[in-house]
Amino acid sequence: MRDKDRGETRAKNPGSIIDPERLDALVDAGKNGDVTAFSQLYALYGKKILNYIFRLTGSREEAEDLMQDTFVLAFRNLHSLKENAKFQSWLFRIAQNNVFQKYRGKLPQIESIDAEGSENSAVTELASGSKGPEEAVLSAELERVVQRVIGELPEKYRQVFVLSAIQKLSYQEISEIVGRSLASVKSDIHRARVEVRDKIKEYLGDNYGMSNLH
Amino acid sequence: MECRIYTESLTALMDGELTPKEETAIRTHISGCPSCRAEFESLDYSYRLVDQIDQIEFQPASWPQIQARLTTSSSRGFFSKLKFPGLWIPIGAVGALLLVATSLMMQFPEDHTDQTRQAFQSYMQERQQEMISRGLIQPTDRGNPIFVHYNPFADATARPKGNPFRSER
Amino acid sequence: MSRLASLFTILVVSTAWLVGQTDWEKTRSIAEAQHEIVMLAIKNKQYDKVLPNSKKIFALTFPANREHLLVDHAKLSSSLLVEQANYPLAHQIVDEAIKVVHNNKSKAALLKEKAVICSREGHDGDAMKFFEQAVKLEEGKP
Question: Cβ of A93 under 8 Å from any chain C Cβ?
């Protein structure tokens, strides 16, 4: 889901993307071993988790595998979730821990995706869709630049940047996911945002500020 | 110096994370400070660029694979790693393999893996019981135990309970 | 003379014992404080503080008969982290503890803890592997 708000204050994702009572019921059912109920949680949160992992790893294939691992782990350990309302942040935490486990505590180096005819199918997929050819090319280029910039961020900035700028989570929720204080998260998000701005400016050069944004 | 305080909160402003009072203070400052306004606009532009990027499409069709893993105890991804399209093993070959395996099992001692699994399951239960008896955890109806605050030693001599290093003689 | 020698021996041994007790008390006190910090950090999900403070405990010198306390610290920390689904950090704590313990009983206990973490993660193969290593160590096999 893209944030369409172009105002100065952006809309944040609510803590839960479904009605809290329904979430509570689904999580409780999952805790009792109800796989069908859990499949609904998968349908609701799968895209967020997939995209989070993709932005951390840069690999669609890895993201798919790790997303599956995340939901399997979540189901097996659902009983350890004390507050059902915190399901989303708990799930994100499992996802990021899976990434760290896979890459032994360090986020992977994301390869630069700037060659034409790149084999990165995720970038191609993202750039296609209902856009016209010119728009699609510009969009693909932007996607490459942004993904490269995200990949160049230091680990702790990359996490909070993706959670804030792309997943649109609140600072409080981000703090719960990454396990750092609110003040620390706020500071890191600011630094990440500034660094992303500086890097995009570097890549786009004189074109920074000139694009016709919708 | 004052500008630095405001510029550090620009992202929080754009993320909707400030209190109304804080927001008013920053907006008032920005409206009167050209350099902060320029910084705000520059950051805002990068926000809008990033907002443009799309998300990967999610396919719930992968649920059956996950469901299969939920109902077995095997480790992940074995079948997904068989990346040989069109790999078909004739039923006859499978039957022959089963026959060989069965005869080998009849000749060799019991599978240690099963013994290990059973021993591990017993260990897990003993571990849980030990932690309960030492007062480290309290079981609950919901299955997830409550960890008793820093209490690994539940001794009989009324030494103060605390972390494992407290008052050890 | 022999009485003097006996008295001297008793004095030396007592002094050594007292010094040892003082050393241990210092170690115990530091470890106690660090354990509190680690527990609080885990409870507040300040994960960046957990390992550095645990390492301060692991850097201390534990007498052989106190090593089980270090194992307890690692197990407690690991258990809490597992409940919070932070498996990588749980692994790291136990790995650091394994590096510093000396006796096989301690190593086996920590390897079993690794098995527990792996099992909770869903890596049953790895869990069995660590458990088997622990059992072999307990049985005195290489």
Answer: yes
